[in-house]
Amino acid sequence: METESEPYVRLATLRQLHQVVADLNTARSLADTLQTVADGVVNGLGYELACVNLVRPDGDLVVAAFAGNPAAEALITGRVGSRESWDRRLSMGEAWGALRFIPHTEGWVLDDDDVPQWYTEGPEPRFEDEWHPSDRLFAPMYATGASGGELIGVISVDRPRNGRRPGAWGREALQMYAFQAAIAISNARLRANMQRALVRLEREQQALRASEESFRQAFEYAPSGMAIAEMGGDQHGRILRTNDALCRLLGRPASQMRRYSFSDLVHPEDIGTLLRTSAEGGRAELRFGRRDGTYVWVSLRNSVVADAADGPRFLLTHVEDIEERKRRELQLAHRASHDSLTGLPNSAELRARLSARLCRRPHAGQPSPVDSLDAAYDHSGLYAAGHATGHVNGHGHVPAPGPHGDYDHHVHTVAPPDDHEADDGTKGLAVLFCDLDGFKSINDRFGHHTGDAVLIEVARRLTSGVRDGDTVARLGGDEFVVLADGLGRADAQDLAVRLRNAIIPPIRVEGRAVRVGASFGIGWAHCGMSADEVLHSADQRMYVEKRSRAKQHRRAG
């Protein structure tokens, strides 16, 4: 029994308190700390039962540790009491400093609430300060150690070994112990949080290292080219890192690649496409220069790798070799626009090239001096009226806006005058329509194989007889068309004669010499005509020339 007048009792209690507080700091985990708190009450403070109720994140309290009775420990450990019920307990009874004592005369109202309880049996007290089996004593634990802090738990005790309610010294000891226990639990929680944070950090670092290693392997061993380049600033596009596939594709070592930016490697015609792709990300097809001076077609796909704080940092560039695909595309385009036998542009390509030189608006001639005076003084001239009001122009046509608009940079195609004696030196686009004479008989007599060989040789002779910028096309069958720009009428006649003379010499096919002749009709293209109209005009002139030559042969015979 505690006797306040016996100092040695208080000294012994103080030693025990010191020991159990020291034990609190040796626990390694939060669970160990909670159990040490409960054991310390039983071993050092003289109570037979002790329970530690810990506040959960949701505010309710769970029985986290129990000491003094294994049966009671198995029954109520892990059970939960609501915060509302605990707040009711901590506001009832008598306040012993920071402790809360609820005598049995008041505590009976708590028998049916949801707080886990263990009922002990015993005789009725004979003395006023004797402990009743239904008495309750709680020691709240606060995060800051004082009652003004956040509640982290409650120590509940029962059955003092001396059978009496604790005196002033016992109360002080339990209050001091609860203060130290709160500190120990807070430290244990902090250590547990730090350990979890360290474990989480280590896992994140391991995941980051694994991710970096995965990226490195994917980057280095990717079957297609990859590069990392700077984003923004004066060094925008400078290559920082390349993989082996890109080095092999461009025939340059990695150390040399780091000296360049993508703009140094791209074909001059593709620089605009590269700059747009670098600024906006996305995909583009362009040409990169190899070490040997050749260019290779690649598909370039940029991904902007950005930092939320600092903005874009660098470009991750994927480079795929599409040279073979581009070659096939060019071959298909060539097949679509060229004759499969002779390799010359076909009818569709001929019409496309001819249409590109023509617009729907006929070209107006220059105004006469009289028209110029009329336009200057009274605006009644035909030239002024035709342009200002849209009335008929000097050719008798209504000017219609073409695909280039009324005011454009299109150079109108004109035809030389028909009168040879009035040749004013005008140059135009001559369309020479060529039809082979005698080709059908060669086909019928020697077969299509010989006929094909003749067409191939005629195509070669026509191509050799024109300038580099001229077009020789096969219209179909034994018909060819030559487009020659910048010729006068006499020049076109001379060209037709030269080409006819080039076709006439014998053509040897499989040891056999065959001959074909050629009839040429010369048409002139000018704006306001369609491609079909131009070709029809040249075709008609060819037939006129063919009939004229036939009559000459008959008269000569």
TrEMBL record:
Which part of the chain is the GGDEF domain?
427-557
Record bears the keyword Protein biosynthesis: no
Highest taxon, organism lineage: Bacteria
What keywords is this UniProt entry annotated with?
Coiled coil
Kindly state a single biological-process term from the GO annotations of this entry: regulation of DNA-templated transcription
**Biased composition regions of type Low complexity, renumbered to the chain:** 390-399
Kindly indicate whether the keyword tRNA processing belongs to this entry: no
Give the region (Disordered) as residue ranges: 388-408
Fetch the SUPFAM superfamilies from UniProt: GAF domain-like, Nucleotide cyclase, PYP-like sensor domain (PAS domain)
Q: Where is the PAS domain?
A: 211-270
The PAC domain covers 282-334
Residue ranges annotated as coiled coil are 187-214
NCBIfam families to which the protein is assigned, alphabetical? GGDEF, sensory_box
Tell me the PANTHER family matching this sequence. BIOFILM ARCHITECTURE MAINTENANCE PROTEIN MBAA, DIGUANYLATE CYCLASE DGCP
Name the UniProt record assigns to this protein: Diguanylate cyclase
Species this chain originates from: Streptomyces longispororuber
